TrEMBL record:
This is Protein MMS22-like. The keyword DNA damage applies. The lineage of its organism: Eukaryota, Metazoa, Spiralia, Lophotrochozoa, Brachiopoda. It comes from Lingula anatina (Brachiopod). The gene is LOC106161495. It is found in: Chromosome; Nucleus. InterPro entries: MMS22-like, MMS22L_C, MMS22L_N, P-loop_NTPase.
Length: 1210
C-alpha cells in the first residue's frame, strides 16, 4: 500500500513539475494526452482503493488496514496541498472551453486537486459507512486543528468530517476570492463557481451530506454550510492574524483557513443566493423544474443576516440593500414564504418609510418617483404583484413589496395575511402619520395599495382611509394632499377592477373637491393659492376620467364623483383652464355614450338600461349644460365647447328628458340651438354640425321630427362661410357633409360643376346651382314654390353681413361677404326679389353691400377695407343691373350730398338725357362706381376703370371661374422689360397660329410679320430685305434650313422692320416651331405655342384643300402625315417639359380651348404678352369668332369663322 501511494504522489509531482520553472509557477502548455494519463492513473488508483475496501476488507483485518489507510490518505492530502494555496494564475485558468482536451496545465492541475479531494472524501465515506468504529480509537490523530475544529462541532476523531470541513472551507474561500472582484452590477449575474466542475462538486457534496443526514443522523448540507458561514461572519480574520503564541503542527490543516473578505455579510447573501438553486439539480447533475419548495435554510437567513439589519447593528446602503432584497425574493420563490422573514423586513422598512431609496448609478431612473396619475400608480403596484415582472429598476422598498406579494400568494394568502395584517395596522397612529413626509406618505400608500391587491380589498381600503383621516387635511402640505387624493383614486380603480361599489370613497373625494372649488371661485383669491387649487382640480379631473375609463357599466356610483363643484369652477376658470375642463366633460360624455351603446345591445330591458345611466347623465346635465349654452354665444369660444355640445345632444337622443330627471332639453331643441341658432358662434356651429351630420341616427331623427332641417343646416353653413373666412379643415368637412344632404345632392344633379377642395368655391357653386335650377324650372307655380324654398337656404344672411360690415373686417371676411353676395345677385336675383314683399332679400343686399349709407354722408368716411372690397367685386353686380332696373330698385332717388354742385347737375342731366334701357343700365352701374371713387380720384379715371371692369365681365367663360380683371393703365406703366420683347407665335400648321397672330397684332405699337420662313411668302414693310435664306420644303414639316443664315437675317430684319420706332414685332410662323428654342434664346422672344389634336389637323387640311381627298386620302399618305405631325408634337412635349406655363418666356395654349371661349383665351394670351385687352380688341375678337360667321373657311388664311362650329367638328 505504501508503494502504491508513493506512485500516486509521483504522478502528482510529475504533473506539477511540468508547470514549474526556475521562477515559480508558469502558465505553460503541454500535451493534453500526458496530462490526462496522469490524472487517469490517480483516479484509477482511488477507485481501486474503494473497490478494495468493499471487497477485501472485513471485520478481521479492518482494525489493522483502516488506520494505515487513514494515514496514507492524510499524507496524500498533505502532499497535495489545499485548493486555496494554489497560485492565482492557476485559479484564473481553471476553466477552458475544450474541457479535458485542453492543453492548459493550470486547468489539469486544478481539476486534479478536485479529483483527489473528492476521491478521498468518497473513500472516507465508504469506511465510515461500512465500518463506523473501525480504526477510530486506534488512529488517535487529527487531520485538522484551529478554532474551526475546537470551537465548532467538528469531531477531531472523525476523518470524514474533518475532510468535509476542509473541502468546504476551501470552496468557500475560493468563492470569497471571486466575490472580492465583483461590482454591484455583477452581484446577481456572476456565480461563485470558477467552472462547472466546481458547481457539480457542490451538488455532489450536497447529495452526500444529505444522504448521511438521512441514513446516519449526521448534519445536513445546510447545517454544515451554516456553521462555516457563521465563522465567516464572526471571525474577521486577515492575513497574518494567526498568533505566534499558537503552536501550529505542520502535519495538520488549519481551520478556518486564512481568508480576506471586505464585507462578510454581503458575501453570505451572495453565496446563499447561489447555493439555494443547487437543490434543483439531481444527483446526476440534471436540472429539473420545481413543483414544490426546496429544502430551505431560513434559520441562517433570519438569525444571521436579517436580525443585524433590523436591529440597526449594520448600516447598509441602497445598492447592497437592493441586492439583499433580490436575493431574499429569489429565495422566497425557491423555498416558499416565511413569515419570520417578512416580519424582520417590515420592521426594517417601517423605520425607513421616509427614505427616498435612491438607486445609485441609475441617474434619474434611480430616484424615488411620485406618480403623476392614478392609473400609472396602479399599474406600478400591479406590476409588483406579478411573478414574472422585471426588478431591474425597482428600489429596495419596491422589492420588499414584491416579496410581500409573492409570499401572500394564493397558497398562503389566508394564513400569512391573518398573521401579518395586525403588525401592519398597529404600526400607524396619528403621531406616526403626521411624521410621514411626502415620500413617506407615498411609500405608505404604495404599501397599502399592494396589500389591497393581494389581501382583503375592502378591509385594507377602509383602514387606509382611516389612516388618511388622521392627517387633518386642512393643515397638511399640498404635496401630502396630492398623494392622498391619488391614493384614494387608485383604490377606486382597484374597486372598479373588482366590481365593488365606490360610493364610500367617491363621497369622501367629492366632498373635498366641492370645498376646493368653492374656494377657487372666490374672486379675491391670491394667485399662488389659486395655482395650488387649480393643480388639485386638474388632478381630480384626470383621476375621475381614469375612473370612468376603467368602468365597464357605470353602475358603481361613479356619478357621485361629478359634484356640484364642477359647475362652480366653469364660470371661474380662465381660457386655458376651461379647455381642460371641457376636455374632461367631452371624454366623460363620450365614455357614457360608448358604454350605453354596448350595454343596451346586451340587455333586453331598455327601462333597466335607462335607469342605470340616468344618474350619470343627470349629474352631467345639471353641472355643465347651462354653461355650455351660454358660452357658445361668446365671440371666441374654445373648440372643445362644440364637442361637449354635440355630446350633450347625443345624450338627449339616448336619454330623453322627463319630469323627474335633470335633463330639461330634448334633442331637437338642442340641435336647433347649437347648430342653427344665429346667436351661436360660427366656429361652434361648424364643429357641432361636423359631429352631428355624419351620424345616421341623427339624420333619421331629424328627417322624422324636423322636416326643414336641411334649409336650417344650409343657413348655418352660409353663416360659417361668412365668419370662418380662412380655409380650415372644419369648413372643408362641413361643405362635404352639406353636399351629401338629399336636397343639395338633388340640386347638383342637374348642374355641371367642377369638384373643388375649397369650401368658398363650393359655396359659390351652390349659389350658381340655385340660379341655374330656378331658370330650368318650368311653370309659374313651380317657380314660386322653388323661390320660397330657395330663400330659406339664405335665411337671415343680411344680419351676418351687417355685423361684418359694421366691424369693417377683417379683409378676408369682407372678401367672403362680397363674393357670396355678388354671386347671389348675379345668379339668384330673379327669385331673391319679390315685388309684393318690401322686405325681400335683394334690396337689403344692395343697400348693405353696394350702396352703404355712409357713402352718402358728407361727414363720414367709408372704411378703406370696405372701399377696396367694393372695388374688387363690384363687377359681379353689373350683369343683373338691367333686371334690377326693371324691378325699379330706385338707386337714383338717394340724395348724394357729398358731390359738388356741378357734378350733381351733370349727373341729373345724364339721368334725364339717356332714357333707353341700355343707357339706364350702364348709368346705373357707373353712378355708384363714380360715387365710391369721387372723393379720392379723378372722375375720368374712375369711369375708365369702371369700363375696364365691365369689359372684364364680358371675357369670363361660362360656368364658375375665378374673378379676375384686366391690367389697368397703372399696371401697364409698371410692366417690365418683357412688355417690349418681340413675339413668336408658332405651332403645327392648321393649329390656329394665324388667328392668334392677328389678335396679337390688334394691339397698339405692333408690326405683324406673316410666316417669314415660308418659301412662298414674301416680306413686306421690312426695308430693302428681299432675299431670304434658303428653305427646303417637305409637306410643311421636316424642314431643312440654314439656321445661322436665318439668325443673321433676323438680326438685320428686326431693326429695319421697326424703322426707328418702338413697335413690337409679331412673328407668326409654324415653320419656326422646330427652331423656336434657339430663336428665343438668341433674340429673347416671348413664344406662344399653339397645340391642336392631330385628327383635327387632318380635318382642317381636308377643309381648306378641295382636292386633298383625291390626292392624299389613302392609308400610306395618312400614316406619313401623322408621323410628320408626331415629330412636331414631340418637339412641343420637350419644350413643355422644359418650360411649361411656369416661365415668363413660353406660353402653351390649346386651339380647342380658344374655340370654346375665344374671349377668355385671347385675354389670357395678351396678358402673357404684356398687352392690354381693350374694348376694340374685344369687339374684333367677337367679330372674327361670331356664331354668324361661316363654319368653313372660303379662302386660305381666312380667320373669320364660327369658332363654336370649328370646335364641334374637331
Amino acid at each position: 500500500m505504501e508503494k502504491l501511494f508513493f506512485l500516486v504522489r509521483q504522478q502528482l509531482n510529475k504533473l506539477e513539475n511540468t508547470t514549474i520553472t526556475s521562477t515559480g509557477w508558469s502558465l505553460g502548455t503541454g500535451s493534453s494526452a500526458s496530462f490526462m494519463t496522469s490524472r487517469h492513473y490517480i483516479r484509477t488508483f482511488l477507485e481501486y482503493v474503494k473497490v478494495y475496501v468493499c471487497r477485501y476488507v472485513n471485520e478481521m483485518n479492518a482494525e489493522q488496514f483502516i488506520p494505515q489507510l487513514y494515514c496514507h490518505l492524510h499524507v496524500l492530502l498533505l502532499h497535495l496541498g489545499r485548493l486555496t494555496e494554489l497560485p492565482s494564475s492557476v485559479l484564473n485558468q481553471c476553466s477552458a472551453r475544450q474541457g479535458n482536451t485542453s492543453t492548459n496545465t493550470s486547468y489539469h492541475i486544478f481539476h486534479c486537486h478536485l479529483d483527489v479531494h473528492w476521491g478521498v472524501l468518497e473513500i472516507l465515506h465508504l469506511i465510515t459507512t461500512k465500518y463506523p468504529n473501525a480504526g477510530i480509537s486506534s488512529s488517535g490523530q487529527r487531520w485538522c486543528q484551529g478554532p474551526g475544529v475546537e470551537d465548532y462541532s467538528v469531531d477531531p476523531s472523525d476523518p470524514f468530517q474533518q475532510c468535509l470541513q476542509l473541502l468546504l472551507w476551501d470552496l468557500v474561500v475560493l468563492a470569497m476570492k471571486k466575490h472580492g472582484k465583483l461590482s454591484m452590477k455583477e452581484y446577481l449575474s456572476v456565480s461563485p463557481f470558477h467552472c462547472t466542475c466546481i458547481r457539480e462538486l457542490w451538488v455532489m457534496l450536497r447529495e452526500l451530506t444529505d444522504y448521511r443526514q438521512e441514513h446516519m443522523g449526521k448534519n445536513s448540507f445546510w447545517i454544515t454550510l451554516d456553521e462555516i458561514l457563521q465563522q465567516v461572519l464572526h471571525i474577521q480574520q486577515q492575513p497574518g492574524t494567526c498568533s505566534s503564541e499558537v503552536e501550529m503542527d505542520t502535519d495538520k490543516f488549519w481551520l478556518p483557513p486564512i481568508f480576506q473578505c471586505s464585507n462578510t455579510t454581503d458575501f453570505c447573501w451572495w453565496l446563499l443566493h447561489n447555493m439555494a438553486p443547487l437543490y434543483a439539480y439531481t444527483s446526476e447533475g440534471e436540472h429539473v423544474s420545481l413543483t414544490n419548495p426546496l429544502q430551505n435554510n431560513y434559520m441562517f437567513l433570519v438569525q444571521s443576516l436579517l436580525k443585524p439589519l433590523t436591529s440597526g447593528e449594520q448600516q447598509v446602503d441602497e445598492a447592497h440593500l437592493r441586492c439583499y432584497m433580490q436575493t431574499s425574493l429569489s429565495l422566497c420563490k425557491l423555498w416558499g414564504p416565511n413569515i419570520d422573514v417578512l416580519i424582520h423586513l417590515w420592521d426594517y422598512f417601517y423605520k425607513k418609510l421616509n427614505h427616498h431609496f435612491q438607486i445609485q448609478g441609475l441617474g434619474v431612473e434611480g430616484l424615488a418617483k411620485i406618480n403623476k396619475s392614478a392609473v400609472s400608480w396602479l399599474e406600478k403596484c400591479k406590476n409588483l404583484t406579478k411573478p414574472d415582472s422585471r426588478v431591474d429598476h425597482m428600489n429596495s422598498f419596491q422589492l420588499f413589496l414584491k416579496h410581500l406579494s409573492s409570499s401572500l400568494g394564493e397558497q398562503g394568502k389566508n394564513i400569512i395575511w391573518k398573521q401579518l395584517k395586525g403588525r401592519f395596522y398597529s404600526k400607524f397612529h396619528p403621531r406616526r402619520m403626521q411624521e410621514l413626509t411626502e415620500i413617506g406618505l407615498h411609500n405608505f400608500t404604495e404599501l397599502f395599495i399592494t396589500l389591497a391587491l393581494i389581501g382583503d380589498l375592502e378591509d385594507v381600503a377602509g383602514k387606509m382611509a382611516d389612516f388618511y383621516a388622521m392627517l387633518q387635511m386642512d393643515n397638511v402640505h399640498h404635496g401630502h394632499r396630492a398623494v392622498v387624493w391619488r391614493g384614494m383614486f387608485v383604490l377606486m380603480l382597484t374597486y372598479e377592477e373588482k366590481g365593488v361599489d365606490i360610493s364610500f370613497l367617491a363621497e369622501k373625494m367629492a366632498q373635498e373637491f366641492n370645498a376646493l372649488c368653492w374656494e377657487f371661485s372666490n374672486d379675491t383669491l391670491e394667485s399662488s393659492r389659486r395655482f395650488q387649487l387649480w393643480s388639485f382640480i386638474s388632478m381630480y379631473l384626470d383621476c375621475v376620467q381614469d375612473v370612468f375609463e376603467a368602468s365597464d357599466q357605470l353602475k358603481l356610483s361613479e356619478y357621485k364623483l361629478l359634484g356640484r363643484g364642477l359647475g362652480q369652477i366653469l364660470s371661474a376658470v380662465r381660457e386655458n383652464e376651461l379647455r381642460i375642463v371641457l376636455n374632461f366633460l367631452q371624454l366623460v360624455l363620450a365614455r357614457h355614450r360608448i358604454i350605453y351603446k354596448r350595454v343596451s345591445q346586451q340587455l333586453s330591458d331598455q327601462h333597466q338600461v335607462t335607469q342605470q345611466f340616468r344618474e350619470v347623465a343627470d349629474a352631467l346635465w345639471v353641472t355643465a349644460y347651462q354653461f355650455v349654452q351660454t358660452h357658445s354665444c361668446t365671440l371666441t369660444p374654445p373648440p372643445q365647447l362644440a364637442d361637449v355640445a354635440a355630446s350633450f345632444t347625443m345624450l338627449t337622443l339616448n336619454l330623453p328628458p322627463g319630469p323627474s330627471t335633470g335633463i330639461k332639453e330634448d334633442f331637437l331643441s338642442s340641435f336647433q340651438y347649437f347648430g342653427c341658432n344665429a346667436a351661436v358662434s360660427a366656429s361652434v356651429s361648424c364643429r357641432y354640425l361636423n359631429h352631428m351630420l355624419p351620424n345616421q341616427l341623427v339624420i333619421e331623427r331629424l328627417s322624422s321630427d324636423l322636416k326643414n332641417y336641411q334649409p336650417l343646416v344650409v343657413q348655418a353653413w352660409f353663416k360659417c362661410a361668412l365668419y370662418l373666412f380662412k380655409d380650415n379643415d372644419q369648413m372643408q368637412e362641413l361643405s362635404r357633409l352639406i353636399l351629401k344632404l338629399p336636397e343639395v345632392g338633388e340640386l347638383f344633379e342637374h348642374v355641371e360643376m367642377e369638384a373643388s377642395d375649397s369650401y368658398s368655391t363650393v359655396v359659390v357653386q351652390f349659389v350658381v346651382a340655385l340660379g341655374q335650377s330656378y331658370h330650368k324650372t318650368e311653370g309659374l307655380m313651380n317657380k314660386i314654390k322653388f323661390r320660397e324654398h330657395a330663400t330659406e337656404y339664405f335665411g337671415d344672411i343680411t344680419r351676418h353681413i351687417g355685423i361684418i360690415l359694421k366691424n369693417a373686417g377683417p379683409p378676408e371676411a369682407l372678401k367672403a361677404v362680397y363674393v357670396i353676395g355678388g354671386y347671389m345677385v348675379k345668379h339668384c336675383a330673379q327669385f331673391l326679389y319679390v315685388k309684393s314683399k318690401p322686405d325681400c332679400l335683394l334690396p337689403s343686399l344692395l343697400d348693405s353691400l353696394v350702396l352703404p349709407h355712409v357713402l352718402f354722408s358728407a361727414s363720414k368716411t367709408l372704411n378703406p377695407s370696405i372701399l377696396q372690397a367694393i372695388k374688387d367685386h363690384l363687377h359681379l353686380w353689373r350683369k343683373r343691373i338691367q333686371f334690377i332696373m326693371r324691378m325699379r330698385v330706385h338707386v337714383t332717388s338717394i340724395r348724394i350730398t357729398s358731390w359738388t354742385a356741378d357734378i350733381e347737375v351733370t349727373m341729373r342731366l345724364w339721368m334725364t338725357r339717356f332714357t333707353t334701357t341700355f343707357y339706364l343700365v350702364n348709368m346705373c352701374f357707373v353712378f355708384p362706381f363714380m360715387t365710391l371713387f369721387i372723393r379720392n380720384e379723378n372722375l375720368n379715371e374712375a369711369a375708365n376703370r369702371g369700363a375696364e371692369r365691365t369689359c372684364n365681365e364680358h371675357v369670363y367663360p361660362s360656368g364658375l371661374q375665378k374673378d379676375r380683371r384686366c391690367k389697368t393703365d397703372a399696371d401697364a406703366d409698371n410692366a417690365d422689360m418683357f412688355s417690349r420683347s418681340d413675339v413668336l407665335i408658332t405651332g403645327p400648321p392648321r393649329s390656329g397660329t394665324t388667328i392668334a397672330g392677328k389678335i396679337a397684332s390688334y394691339s397698339e405699337n405692333t408690326k405683324y410679320l406673316h410666316e417669314p420662313m415660308n418659301p412662298i411668302e414674301r416680306l413686306v414693310n421690312c426695308g430693302n430685305i428681299t432675299a431670304k435664306p434658303k428653305v427646303y420644303k417637305n409637306a410643311d414639316v421636316n424642314l431643312v434650313v440654314d439656321i445661322k443664315g436665318w439668325q443673321r437675317f433676323y438680326s438685320e430684319m428686326f431693326p429695319r422692320c421697326r424703322n426707328g420706332t418702338d413697335n413690337r414685332l409679331i412673328l407668326k410662323d409654324p415653320i419656326a416651331l422646330k427652331f423656336s428654342h434657339s430663336l428665343q434664346k438668341r433674340f429673347s422672344l416671348l413664344v406662344v405655342v399653339k397645340i391642336r389634336h392631330p385628327a383635327a389637323l387632318i380635318a382642317s387640311d381636308c377643309a381648306r384643300r378641295s382636292d386633298w381627298r383625291a390626292r392624299y386620302c389613302h392609308t400610306k399618305s395618312i400614316m406619313r402625315y401623322l408621323a410628320q405631325r408626331k415629330e412636331q408634337f414631340q418637339i412641343i412635349v420637350i419644350l413643355y417639359k422644359l418650360y411649361g406655363n411656369q416661365t415668363k418666356f413660353w406660353y402653351f395654349t390649346k386651339h380647342e380651348d380658344f374655340c370654346d371661349n375665344p374671349l377668355w383665351e385671347a385675354r389670357r394670351m395678351l396678358e402673357f404678352l404684356r398687352m392690354r385687352f381693350t374694348h376694340s380688341i374685344l369687339h374684333k375678337v367677337e367679330n372674327i369668332t361670331s356664331i354668324e360667321n361661316p363654319s368653313k373657311i372660303k379662302r386660305y388664311h381666312d380667320i373669320h369663322i364660327n369658332s363654336k362650329a370649328v370646335r364641334d367638328t374637331s
